[in-house]
Amino acid sequence: MQKGLIIDNARVVIQGNIIKEVTRAKGPSQGKEIDMDNGFVLPGLFNMHSHLSMAFPSMNSAELAAISSLRAYRRGYDALNAGVTTVRTQGELHRVDISLRKMINEGWVQGPRILAGGKGVGVSGGHGSEFGRIGANGPDEFLKAARTELAFGADHVKIFITGGISASARLREESEMTEEEMEAVVRVAGSKGTYVTAHAGGSEPILKAVGAGVTCFEHGYVLNRKAAKAIKEADGYLVPTLGVTRSPVWMREHGTTEQGLERVLSAADTHLQSIKTAIEEGVKLLNGTDIPPGDLNDGINATVREIEFLTHAGLSFIEAIRASTICAAELCGISDRVGLAEPGYVADLIAVPSNPLSDIRSMRQIRFVMKDGQIVRDDLHGKRI
Q1: pLDDT tens profile 121-134
Q2: Which positions ≥6 away from 23 have C-beta within 8 Å?
Q3: Domain count, the chain
């Protein structure tokens, strides 16, 4: 999939958990063969903005860890069955993502590959306080908080540099952190060989964060051309989470009030235009939903729906698939082994009935899921974990 290459009548040979060979089929197989019934096989999907523990529409940071853990496990299980073989978490209660990652990696439970963010970090009383994140004030406290999360086992550090979508338009665009605070977090992450991602609503805070060395940005609700150019020039990434401003059915189903829904939907046009601007400037986009990755969004898996939203913003079908596979793996530092259906890569695979490069809606019909060489779901032969 790196070049959008399609191999007709292909045979994917898997040895252990690794793709050994991808060739045109010739003669009978030497081992066990799974017939995809003329389907199309692709790499497993990434969801780069997941909150596995979050309850909607509001979060209680005092919730018992056992409840948060069970919710996170079920969300991960649902994501994997939907074809999302890798998730990147963006701040979880009680750091349940780190614990769940251990359980999955050691084979105690089934779930997606988790790139864990632990607890997010933001200013005291600022956005995300209800998510159980760490509150900090001043560069020294931010530095300490970032060290704490990495010491607990976080794969990256999440910061909150603006207000959220439910806040007023002004708070979405105003900076909650100083550039010095951002720089402190970036220094710590860099010393551990990782990066910082930022919840970011507006352009001016994004410009500050780019200057401070932040690598990835979430949402970009109000993104002007100057900020988009800055992200591009810094070789950064943007996770638009377009579904946040265009999912009324899901939000009503999960208890959002009509007043809250109106506030969110009123930002939809500006949000979409911001992402169109980012695409025009060549910013690298990644798939992330904010909505639980295995949930249905208007009857369609939320991660797949986000792929469609990315095409509405201007990505081609292959670009939207790459934003959900190999480009995501690049940011996470695992693109040498995850994110492609090629020899030498981990066997994270999905199958759909028709060519998604001709019609992206084919992604709505994922019927086979394999993670790490193990079959998770095979609808053609009646198998599910």
Answers
A1: 999 999 888 778 99
A2: 7, 10, 11, 13
A3: 2
How far, rounded to the nearest angstrom, does the alpha carbon of residue 203 sit from its chain's CA centroid?
Answer: 21
34-58: burial string, b at 16+ Cβ within 10 Å, e else: bebeebbbbbbbbbbbbbbbbeeee
Assign residue 125 a region (left: φ > 0; alpha: ψ between -120 and 50; beta: otherwise). Answer: left
Same domain, 191 and 59: yes
- Does residue 92 share a domain with residue 36? no
Give, in degrees to the nearest 5, the angle at Cα 75 between 305 and 320: 25
Closest CA to 121 of 191, 210, 188: 188
* 340 residue type, one letter: L
CA 372 to each of CA 43, 76, 261, 376: distance values in angstroms, whole numbers, following the listed order: 11, 15, 39, 10
The 45-50 sheet, strands edge to edge: 45-50, 84-89, 113-115
| Strands 368-371 and 374-378, bridge-based pairing | antiparallel
Give the C-alpha separation, 43 to 225, whole Å: 32
Same domain, 97 and 238: yes
Strand partners, 196: 157
Give the containing element (helix H, strand E) for 192.
none
Angstrom distance (rounded) from CA 101 to CA 89? 10
Q: Which domain holds residue 193?
A: 44-332
pLDDT of 203 above 50: yes
Residue with tokens 């809606």: 361
pTM above 0.85, yes or no: yes
Residue pair 81/110 in contact (Cβ under 8 Å)? The answer is no
- Whether 58 is in a domain gets the answer yes
The CATH number of the domain where 103 resides is what?
Answer: 3.20.20.140
pLDDT averaged over every residue in the chain: 95
Provide the pLDDT confidence category of residue 211 given band limits of 50, 70 and 90: very high
